[in-house]
Amino acid sequence: MRAALRDAVDAGLSSEEARARLAQFGPNVLAEPPRPTCEGRFAANLVHLFALLLWGGAGLALLGGLPELAIAIVVVILVNAVFAFVQEYRAKRASEARASARGVSPSSPCSPPLPELCKTGKQPVDLVLGVVVDDPRSDRAVFET
């Protein structure tokens, strides 16, 4: 089995076989992951470990007869969540703007480690199982899915 695979890798694929595999398996792309909603990202800032500790402290303060302290702790949790949400939102927009300025999406197939392949005009989306592509960093690269 290994010898047959090694022979197939050394020979590569014919154009017809590559087209057949492309038709059978589809393009070599990952589906875009679902983006979390703004509400979900904000809620995540309310339930991380330190926020949960603060929620527990607010509950204990309330049980201890210190409602003012409990309210202050809840305000701290909410202010922290707002600041963290705004910072994450700005960082996400900056990342998308940087990727857009380079002409690629953040999930582009031409992000490392394949920039040399893209400079040749070949796109990783066109690669199929068994295609052998010359890689300047090694003798060859075999892309398998």
Output the keywords:
single chain, 145 residues, mainly alpha, two-stranded antiparallel ribbon, 2 strands, elongated
What is the strand and helix layout of this fold?
Blueprint: H1 2-11, H2 15-25, H3 38-44, H4 49-63, H5 67-102, H6 115-119, E1 132-133, E2 141-142
Antiparallel strand pairs: 1-2
Helix pairs in contact: 3-5, 4-5
In short:
The protein is mainly alpha-helical. The chain contains six helices and two strands. The chain is elongated.
The Rg value, from CA coordinates, equals 26 Å
- Series of H and E elements: HHHHHHEE
Structural class, from secondary structure content? mainly alpha
Per the principal axes of the C-alpha atoms, what is the gross shape?
Answer: elongated
Oligomerization state of this entry?
single chain
The domain tally reads 2
